[in-house]
Amino acid sequence: WRRFSWKARLRTGNMASRRCACVSTRACASDPGTRFKKGCTRRETLQGIPMVAAGLWLAQHSDAFATTVVLSQDERRETMMKAFHEAAPKTKAPVLLRLAFHDAGTYDANTDTGGSNGSIRFELNRPENGGLKRGLRCIDEVRNALRDTSEENASYADLISVGGAYAVEVCGGPRIDVPIGRLDVAEADPEGRMPLEDYSAGRLKDVFRRGGYTVQEFVALSGAHTVGGKGFGAPLEFSSVYYSELLRKPWEDPSDKMNQMIGLASDHAMADDEECQSWIRKYAEDQDLFFRDFARAYTKMSLSGARFA
C-alpha cells in the first residue's frame, strides 16, 4: 500500500465507490427481473430510477389507462329493453307506441328533415299530440331505471324508438331490433306534418308518401291501431284482427251504436280504398306476413331522419 502513489490510491478508491451493494432480496433497478445481483454501478442504479418511478406511477394510476369497452348493438338494446320491462308496465304500451309514431311521423323525405330525433319533447302541446305527455313521463321513468348502466346517457330518440318496439313485443307482436345510437335534436320539427284523424285515404297516402313509404308500408304501419282503445280486439293485444275488422266494417251497422265507435275516420277511409284493400286482405288472412312487414316498416320508420353518433 505504501508503494501506491496517491493518484493510484485515488483511482482505486473511486473504483470501489462506484459499486453499490444490491444484495439480499433487493433487485437491481436497471434489471428488475433479477432478484439477486451484486455490484451494480452507480450509473446503472441512477439510470434505473426513472423506470422504477414510472412503474410505480402506472400501478397507482392504472384506472387512467382503463380499456374502453365497446358494447354491441344487441347488448345496448337489451339493456334498454330490460329497463322498459322494469319501469314500463304493459298498460303503457299504447301510449309508448303512439309516442314513437308521432316522433318519427314528422319526417319529410324530400328535404330529409324531421323524423326519429326526439323532437316530440318540444311538440307535446300540439293538438295531434294530445295525451302523449304520459308517454314521455314513462320514457323518463325508464331513463331513471337506466342509471348506473351502460345506457344511462341514452338519447330520447333511441328510447322512444325502442319503447315502441317494446310496446309491440310486450303485446304479443314481433320482436323488432331497431338500431341504436340516434342523436337528439334541441328543437321542435316543423308543424303540419302529422296526418289527422279525419283525413281521406288519398290524403293519408300522400302524407306517408312524403315520408318515403309505399302503400304497403302505410297499410302495415296502420296495423299499430290494433293496440289501444280503438275497438279493434283486445286493447293490449297486437294482432291482425285490425284488418279483419276493416273488412267487416262494423261501424256501418246502424243498429249498433257501439260498433259505430270502432276505429277512426281515417281507418274507415282506408277500408274503402281499393289500393289499400289488397293489402288489408292479405294481412287479415296471414298474421305472420303482417308481423314481418310491420317489423320492416317500423324499423324503416325508426331510421327516418335519424342522425347517429
Helix content: 40-55%
Alpha-carbon distance between the two ends: 81 Å
Count every helix, treating DSSP H or I runs of 4 or more residues as helices.
12
SS-based structural class? mainly alpha
Measured by DSSP, the beta-strand proportion falls in under 5%
Unreliable residue stretches? 1-38, 61-66
Shape: globular
Mean pLDDT: 86
Rounded to the nearest angstrom, the radius of gyration is: 34 Å
Q: State the order of secondary-structure elements, H for helix, E for strand.
A: HEEHHHHHHHHHHH
- Outline the biggest β-sheet: 2 strands, antiparallel
Strand order of the largest sheet: 1-2
What does this structure look like?
This protein is mostly helical and 309 residues long. It contains twelve helices and two strands. The chain has helices at residues 6-17, 42-60, 73-87, 93-104, 133-145, 156-170, 201-210, 215-222, 241-248, 265-271, 274-285, 287-303; strands spanning 19-20, 40-41. Strands 1-2 form a two-stranded antiparallel sheet. Helix 4 (93-104) crosses helix 5. The longest helix has 19 residues, at 42-60.
